[in-house]
Specification:
The protein is mainly α. The protein has one domain. The protein contains 3 helices and no strands. The chain is elongated, with a radius of gyration of 20 Å. The model has no long low-confidence stretch (mean pLDDT about 95).
């Protein structure tokens, strides 16, 4: 039921913004708005269902650790 409400709200927001963006030929803004609206809707459903999502910090640690090791090796 909540998923239906989230989707209905997202469609209503998109339908209210799309005509103005099409009229002004704001295609990039419409694509960005749709992307954020879809992402926000998906994240809302994930939060409501309490699905465990890994921390984005783990991705940064994975990327940064080799760089850190390289500089540690370079400067020590």
């Amino acid at each position: 039921m909540v998923v239906f409400f989230v989707v209905l709200t997202a469609v209503a927001i998109g339908a209210s913004q799309a005509p103005m963006m099409l009229r002004n030929r704001w295609f990039r803004e419409m694509a960005a708005s749709a992307l954020f609206l879809i992402a926000g809707s998906i994240l809302s459903v994930i939060a409501w269902k309490m699905i465990s999502v890994p921390s984005p910090l783990n991705i940064l640690i994975t990327i940064y650790k080799p760089v850190n090791n390289f500089f540690k090796l370079l400067f020590s």
